Each structure stands twice: as structure tokens, then as C-alpha cells.
Amino acid sequence: MIDGFRFLPEYFSPPAQKALLADVLGLLDDNPLYRGSMPRTGKPLSVRNTNLGPLGWVSDIKGYRYQPTHPVTGKPWTPIPQALLDLWRDVASFPAPPQACLVNWYEADSRLGLHIDADESAKDAPVISVSLGSRALFRLGGLERKSPTSSMRLASGDVVVLGGAARQAYHGVDRIYPDSSTLVPGGGRINLTLRRVTAP
Ligand code: SIN
Ligand code: FE2
User: Fold this and answer.
1) If you count Cβ atoms within 10 Å of the first and of the last residue's Cβ in the chain, which end, N or C, has fewer?
2) DSSP E strands: which ranges in 21-170?
3) Cβ within 8 Å of residue 15, ≥6 positions away
4) How many Cβ atoms are within 10 Å of 70's Cβ, its own excluded?
5) Ligand 1 within 6 A of 110 CB?
6) What is the pTM of this model?
7) Residue 31: inside a domain
8) Predicted pLDDT at 1
9) Is the CB of 191 under 6 A from ligand 1?
């Protein structure tokens, strides 16, 4: 496994998962899920998303970027919940807080192609992800698209840290196992990724 990858299974206990999910669901009214699209082609993304925090990651026909406002409502994103700021403080080993929490909502047939998180200028800050709800088949590769990959299942409450070399590694989600958890309404999966966007 590439250096700097950390897997923290069941970092969040079942009660902590419930509390975090309630926080996130409660914030969706003000930060509605929407379906972004691929740069250039405009092809709809498989996953609906929204963001929390001072900046949010947005993908549309013009490209990928971070912006302070929701592209549909035009309003600033709501702050990142405390439980996620606490997670970052505990595991990021980085002197500044995260600026973006991308909320990805996977349905039964959603997937996320192999990619590198490359739209942040704070390259020495890790990306930290939290899984809630149904299990996912996560694939982690190396620095090149053709590097060998390994796959693992991510379950509700698991945390993954992409730091060090792994921060620049290809990764993606090949499939989810719908209804493998009853936590998320509809049997889906929510992945929360915390990112530092600008160098502090
Ligand atoms: C991502 O790469 O942004 C999300 C990974 C995941 O859903 O586990
Ligand atoms: Fe990613």
C-alpha cells in the first residue's frame, strides 16, 4: 500500500455515526444536494454532492474549482460540523483547519472513477474521508493511472487518510453494496471528504 495511506476502521462508533449523519442531513436543507457535471463534456456526475465549510468543490462544464457559495442557491456553504473538525485535529497532523467538506451521496448504482484530488494548493495537507451507510468497494492505486491498485471495502464509520505520497495517488469507488447498512435513508452511502484548499 502506498506510503501515507491510513485506514482507521470504525473510527466513528455507531452512536457517533448516527449523530454525524443527523448533523449532515440537517444541513442539507441549506446546502441541497445537486448533480454536477464533467468538465468539457457536461456529462452528469454519477454522484450527487454538496459541501460544507468556507469553500466547496464544484464540477461543471467549465471545470473543477473551489468556491465560497453553493452553485444552485448562490449562498455561502454552512460551516463544517464540530465532529469533523475534531477528526481533522486528531488525525491530520496539519497546523490549519480544513476549508472544505465535500459531501458525496452514492445511490445503488453510483460509482466514482479513478482520479487524483488535485484541485487544492495545500499539497502537504492530507485528504481525510469518512464513510457513512452502505459499504463501498474502494480502489487505491499509485502515482500513475496505470500503477497497480488494491481494493478494500469501506464500511460505515471507517476513516481513510490520504497523506504523504498517497495524497497524490489515484483512487476511486468501483461500486457500493446497496442496503448493506440501514444508516442512510434509502440504503445509500455518504462519503465526507475534508480538504485544506489553500496553503495556510
Ligand atoms: C473521493 O475520492 O472523493 C471519495 C472517496 C470515497 O467515496 O470513499
Ligand atoms: Fe478523491
Assistant:
1) C
2) 48-52, 56-60, 63-67, 100-106, 112-115, 127-133, 135-140, 150-154, 159-162
3) none
4) 19
5) no
6) 0.97
7) yes
8) 83
9) yes
Q: Which amino acid is at 13?
A: S
Domain total of the chain = 1
Pull the grid cell for residue 155. 464500511
Identify the domain containing residue 65 by its residue range: 5-195
CATH of the domain at 81: 2.60.120.590
Residue 187 grid coordinates: 440504503
Whether 89 is covered by a domain: the verdict is yes
* pLDDT tens string 130-174: 999 999 999 999 999 999 999 999 999 999 999 999 999 999 999
Has residue 200 been placed in a domain?
A: no
Q: What is the pLDDT of residues 61-90, one digit of tens each?
A: 999 999 999 999 999 999 999 999 999 999
What are the helix (H) ranges across the chain?
A: 14-27, 82-91
Domain-embedded: residue 102: yes
